[in-house]
Design goal:
This protein has about 240 residues and is an alpha+beta fold. It is built from six helices and eight strands; from the N terminus they run H-E-H-H-E-E-E-E-H-E-E-H-H-E. Helix 2 runs antiparallel to helix 3. It is elongated.
Length: about 240
Amino acid sequence: MASDYEDSAKIAALPTEGVHCFPANGKKIRIRRIVSIPLMLAFFSLAFFFLFGKTQNIVIACFALCAFIITVLYFAQTFLIEKYRVAIDYDEKKVVLRYRYSLIALPFSSFDAREGVPDKAEALLDSAIHTGTKNDYIILDNVFTDVCFQTSLKDLASKEEFLKLKEEAFAIADAYGARNSDKAIRVANAPSNQSQVKADGTREESIDDIVSRALDNESDTDADAFGDASRSNEDNK
């Protein structure tokens, strides 16, 4: 049943079937693979040496094995985000986000999209290293939960992909109007509240940031992965 804040005419104008996939930035994927392959070999060799070599040390071997497993997972994830980082499923009426090894579904009926801002760490990094390229952000949100997610132009395969995602996401949010629900958790999205948007994915992407900028200071480098954003509740009017 349609809610009183949905716009039937705008919903009818949306695609009725199909899945639109938005893959991750190809350069970021290549950097991840370049970084993770030698690390995997190094950690595996270290673990093997301290397990079976003349100088055996179980503690170091265990740490090396853990590091090896982490880098294997880091490498394997590149094949997942190569397919898509965000997908809009018009068959199931949901936006799907790939966050690490999880798939997060945001139903159209509770979905909102809006302009995002860089988190504090990314803003400091951008000010310290001038690439000459402006990054744009978009927040993808379930308005009935306390957590929202952010991606950026530099996270996706191209500017065209980002703009297409933004256009479709904004159209869905406008058509279903979940933000207008009395039960929606309100967000203060003013510039002074930029610190509210935190990227949990910063740790995961930090290697990409450093290596990518070192390789090419004038091209599209890393920005936030989907980040959990802490949000403040406002009184419903």
